[in-house]
Each structure stands twice: as structure tokens, then as C-alpha cells.
Amino acid sequence: MNIKKAILFSLLVVAGTTAFAQSSNLRKAKAGLQKFQELQGNNLPAEQLAQLGKKDLEDAKEAIDAAITHDKTKDNPETWTIYALVNANLATLEKSAEAEQAAEEGIQKATALDSDGKHKENITVAGQLLGQFNFGQGADAFNNQDYETAYTTFNRALHYLPGDTTLLYYSGLAAIQNQDYPNAIKRYEELIPQKEFSQHKAVMIDLPKLYLSTKDTTNALEYAAKAAAEYPEDNDASVQNIELNLMTGNEGKIISDIENQIAKDTDNKALYYYLGIAYSASENNDKAIEAYKKAVEIDPNYVEANKNASATIINSVRNQLNALNDDKTLSNNDYSTKVEELKEQIKVALPYLEKVVELDPKDVDALKSLKGYYDFQQNEEKSAETQAKIEALQQ
Q1: What is each CA distance from 278 to 27, 225, 231, 237, in whole angstroms?
Q2: Would you state the pLDDT for residue 94?
């Protein structure tokens, strides 16, 4: 959205227009508008521009208001073009809905009268100004948490600035905040082809969630797959695609898809990590651990893979311990023997836990997991040492 360039272009077109029969009011209006635009070209702060330029615009408005009723100029497309430009600038300067309405009337009249397209560029500039005005009004409403008004106003701005990515995005955000998910989806879908847009990734990742909010699982799955394909290195996009497929009973498909990708790219640590997530979600812990271990083999400093490997191992042991505790048929000796077996089994998690803490010594959750490990192993010294680190971080 670059309205400043449009305004300066407007100045060039207005200043360069020639006419053989101009009334004094039309000339006065053009002169006042040109003075105001020259001030704008100086990049003055908004307050200073309003103070210095308002008189020029008011003079221009007084003159053009007379010109639109004068017999010699009332049917002149240039008259209505200047009328639209003057009022569009006033709307922006004064945040005036009345001036906005007048500018819209001027655009419609000028467009109808401009049969040869001579004033098309300046008419377009007037519309761009109204787009900017409505964007500002919509932003104010959004900041005041009046999301319904914000959505309506952003849409009005889009009438003048069709396809503007910033407007489409904020229109979608306003609809989301208003829980108007169908309109949010509509706006976000319009942004999909705009891959250069700075928030394109966020749009792609959020779109499946919006479809889920409307209980449209089919489209949620489709766009989750598109997001993962468009941003294959993004954790959120890939995990979302995995989780949605698992939620809808597509475990075999998503695991197969990841494994097919691994066959093509055997050294891609992220693929093994995602495979681990898929297996974890489908409660195949052994396969999940195997996948996480492979990711760590490729990159020993892969924090997420180390964290998930240790967590999956610990959770597996915890589930077995809970089952032991619930089994009232075990003798004390059998129970103790099996607990000792679990203590050996859980030792596999320790190197991964230690690596997570090494890579991020301030990770309190990892430290708590490490303390839980030492508590289970009845290593009081290590448990106390780890607890001291936790307390130091929480002070």
C-alpha cells in the first residue's frame, strides 16, 4: 500500500492538465489542491501538514463546491475529478465521513463523465486516498476491539484498493477476532497466491485451523498439506499436517508420506523428527523412539529431537510403572524386580535429557524431567543438585 506515490503522481497529472476554458473556481480549486500536495511531498508530520495544509484544502473545497453547480463546469469530468480529490484528501486529513461520502460521489460522477478516459489516473488516485482513509478507520476500530466495524471498514477499503495484501490480511484478522470464520477463510484464501507477502506463511498455517473452526475437516486436511508442502522446514506447518491426519484416522497415510520423503532425503533430520511425532501420536512408542534417535544421530544438537526422545522413553516407562502399581497380583519381590528392570530401561533417556540441559541450561521443564529421572533412580545427590538449579532459575 503506497499512497504517497499515488498522491505525488496525482500532483503531476493535475499540474500537467491543460484546458482551454476553465472557470475561475475550477482554477482556484486546482491551485489549492496543488499547494496542499506540494506540502505532502515535503513529508511533513501529520500535525504540521494538517495545520499548514488545511487552509489550502478548504479554499479548494469552497471553489470546487461552486464549480460543480456552475453551468460551464458542472458537466465537466475534470470538475468532478478535482471534487473527488479535494474531498478524499479532506477525509484523510480530518477523518471525516462526510468528506468521504462527497469524494465517493465525485468518483462516480467523474467516472460517468470521463468518456475518453482522460482523467482516469486522477480518479484512481482519489479512490486510493479513500482506500487509505478506510484503512486508517479500520485500524482504529481494530485497536478499539470493535472487530465487526474493522472488518466492514477494511472491506470498504478493499473496494478502492482491490487485492491489497495488507488489507486482505487485516480484514481476515478482524473476521477471526469476530469469530466470522467463513469471511476469514475467504480473505486468507485470496492471499494464498501472494507468496511474496510477509505474512504468507502465517496465513497458510492458520487456514487449516479456520476450516476446523467451521467443522470442514476435508478442507482443513487439504490446506494443512499445502502449508506443509509450501514450508517443509517449518515445524508448525509439518506438525499440524501430521496431527490433522492422525485426528482423522489417516495414520497410515501420513506415516507413509513421511517415510516416502525420507527415502528421497535420507539425511533430513526434520523428517525423522516428524516421523517420531507421527508414531508417538499413533502410540507406537518404539517406532517413535527409533525415529527420534535417528534425527539425533544426524544432528546431536537437535534440541527438539533430544527432548522428544527422552520424553517418549520416560513416558513409556511411566506407563509401565503405573501398570505395575495397579497390578495387585504381584508379590513384593516380583514388584521390586520389575521396578529394577524399569530403572535399567529408563537409563536410555539420560543422555538425551542431559543434552537438552546442556544446549539450554535455562530450560526449567527439562531440568524438572531430569530431577524426576534421578528421583526414580533414587540418586539423592543428583536430584538435590538439579533441584538447586531449578530454584536458582525461578528466583
Answers
A1: 72, 14, 18, 14
A2: 84
Contact 296, 309 (CB under 8 A): yes
Convert the pLDDT of each residue in 224-270 to its tens digit. 999 998 998 888 898 898 888 888 888 888 898 889 888 888 998 98
- Percent of the chain with pLDDT strictly greater than 90: 67
Summarize the confidence of residues 37-66 as an average pLDDT. 74
* 266 backbone dihedrals φ, ψ, rounded to 5°: -70, -15
Q: How far apart are CA 20 and CA 80, in angstroms?
A: 17
pLDDT tens digits along 189-221: 999 999 999 999 999 999 999 999 999 999 999
**Angle value at C-alpha 11, between 6 and 14, nearest 5 degrees:** 120
Under a CB-based contact definition with an 8 Å cutoff, are residues 174 and 147 in contact? yes
Contact 16, 121 (CB under 8 A): no
CA 21/CA 246 separation, integer angstroms: 74
Asked if residues 125 and 106 have their Cβ atoms less than 8 Å apart, the reply is no
Q: Which domains does the chain have, with CATH numbers?
A: 1-144 (no CATH), 300-395 (1.25.40)
3-state helix, strand and coil shares in percent for the chain, rounded to the nearest 5 = 80, 0, 20
Q: Which residues contact 76 (CB under 8 A, 6 or more apart)?
A: 26, 113
Cα–Cα nearest to 356, from 347, 365, 345: 365
